[in-house]
Every structure is written in C-alpha cells, then in structure tokens.
Sequence to fold (226 residues):
Amino acid sequence: GAVVSQHPSWVICKSGTSVKIECRSLDFQATTMFWYRQFPKQSLMLMATSNEGSKATYEQGVEKDKFLINHASLTLSTLTVTSAHPEDSSFYICSAREDLLYGYTFGSGTRLTVV
Amino acid sequence: QKEVEQDPGPLSVPEGAIVSLNCTYSNSAFQYFMWYRQYSRKGPELLMYTYSSGNKEDGRFTAQVDKSSKYISLFIRDSQPSDSATYLCAMSVTGNTPLVFGKGTRLSVIA
Fold:
C-alpha cells in the first residue's frame, strides 16, 4: 500500500528558532497533502491543505506566516514552524492519498517540543 | 453540534471479546468513510475504508456504514491486547477533500 514518510520523528528546539518537517510520498505522486496537528488525548485538527505548485490553503485560525508550507514537488511537502514558541509544541502529522481506491495514508508524525 | 461525534471512552474489554465502535455525523454529503488505529505517539494507521453505504470485512475487522442514519461502526472480533489503541473514525465529502475526524475512542483489551 501507499507509504508516507515523515521526518524528523521528534525534534526539540529553542524558542524563537525555526523547524522544518518533511513529508514524502513514497512510490506515488501526491498533488495534495494535508497537515494536521494533534494535542495530547485530542483528535487531529486540520491545519492546511498543501497543493503542489501553488499556495497552501490554511484553516481558519492557523497563521500562514508562522506555519510555512511548501509543496515543491509531487512527492514532497514541507512544514516550517517559524519563530517557534512553547505553545507550538505538539504532534504534527501529514497525510496523502495515492488513489481513490484507498483511504488516506498518514506519516508517522513529528513530535515538536519548544523549550 | 459537531460534524462527527465519537464517544472518547475509555473502553475496556477482556481478550476475545467483540468490540463495537461507532460514530455519528451530521453532514449528509460525506461519502468516504475510514477507520484509523493510532498507537501512542504514532501516526494513524488506516484500518478500513468504505465508499458510500454498506459493509466491508477484513480479517477480524468489519466496517458498516448506514448513510440513512448517518451512523458508522467498526467491529473487532476476537479482540487482542495488541488491539489496545485509540480508534478514530474519519470521513470526507470527495476523494480530495480533507478528512473530518471524530475525537477517537481509547480501547484497552485486557489479557
């Protein structure tokens, strides 16, 4: 089945620095990828829809200047958390879909801790 | 009313029991329905995928969709301790729209 690779799996950074998270679709092309955020014991909340070759679409309340999304190729989308603060600490997960015959596949997630 | 309602549990069952998980939804436009299993600190893993109404079986798992009632279910037969996880229902309107998730149900299968 489809595989989505996400890196890094965890990262600790200092407040004020930026962190980049990569999401790759392996063996399939993904014109659309989705980025979610999950707080402990909470469900996944959609942050933005990443479209290859165009600007991402952000959900209401998500700061596009803080969470920069780049979908430069059909197999790679990146999420950069800029000027990170402790309240940005969370579990970030990406997803993509290979085919309408299959459901969405998720990456393994990135646990971000800002200290 | 939230778009997707799911009892968060926790749900605790003995090993070998049949587990029934369910979600209700309000948007009649949803056509794609999925169940995911998520272990702690991991990304969700797709278990079942159904388009429109009907039943689907895969091993010990059976998914049911009743669009008339806006109700979906996941049944786990012969539950195992390794099934202990959070189960999330998710649905979308079209094949390319984002998923809307339930809150997830925490399941513990006791040996």
About this structure: Residues 16 and 67 of chain A are 13 Å apart (CA to CA). Chain A has a mean pLDDT of 92. Chain A touches chain B at residues 1, 6, 32, 34, 42-44, 46, 49, 91, 93, 95, 97, 100, 102-109, 111 (CB under 8 Å).
